[in-house]
Amino acid sequence: MELNNEGGKLTPRVRLAMRLRRLRERKGLSLRQLSEGVGGYSHSYLGRVELGSQLPSEALVNMLDDFFDTDGVLADLLEMVHDSVIADYSRKIVNKEPEAERIQVFTSSLVPGLLQTPAYAHALFRRSLPDESEEEVHDRVTVRMRRQRIFHGEDPPYYWAIMDEAALRRPVGGAACMVEQLERLLRAADRPRTTVQVLPFARGAHPMLGGGLTLMTLKDGATVALVESFDSGEGADSPKRVVQLTDRFDLARSLALTDDESIELVRRYLKGYEDDDDS
């Protein structure tokens, strides 16, 4: 991929690539010399970053900022890239995830984003955003996986996920992808601060058919909400609206299987996908 500016507007990805190239050229360094200066990251990897065909890792960006003494400029640009791939309507809510004490999620047809594997997320983005380049899809997957770091700290949020059975039944990415994804769900359910439930087809209609809901309780006690459909969303933080949405979540939870029943259903679907993958 060559650098482009999408109709005259420099994207954060292009700005990052161009800034890195200028920094290197001002020092009179080849890509191989830069590779040696930043701990052996391959010159081909650095070349792809300069062309904008691959995003650098955070570790590389931090090393480059130190090497060029740029006071975090490259890290700031990388953060802008990550922000740019999150939908405008959800960015404000998503950016609060590191501050959350509790996250409650309902999804009507997909595994929740914070529980997705890279392969599952890639399959979703590739199919739902057919006009985007492979690099853009990769950026979206990278950001989604990056958001999952909130579970790896010393004080992760309590996470309660409820999904419609359709999320298990729909073979996103094929059988092998679903095997990996459902194994990931089972591991997540084993975490002490994570609950996974399934709302089965047998319960009929429920109050959030065709949509998704995130309720996020922050460290200051406030709760914010995000309602999503397939290509739009609505953030909410007014107490009245949050209570209305919480009532919907609670009703869906009352219809869902228990934790143990949900895990058993996930295991049955997993066995089915394993059989399909072996055939």
From TrEMBL:
SMART domains according to UniProt: HTH_XRE
InterPro entries named in the record: Cro/C1-type_HTH, DUF5753, Lambda_DNA-bd_dom_sf
Cited Pfam families: DUF5753, HTH_31
SUPFAM superfamilies in the record: lambda repressor-like DNA-binding domains (SSF47413)
HTH cro/C1-type domain boundaries: 20-75
PROSITE patterns the UniProt entry points to: HTH_CROC1
Highest taxon listed in the record's lineage: Bacteria
Name under which the protein is recorded: Helix-turn-helix transcriptional regulator
Source organism (scientific name): Streptomyces hebeiensis
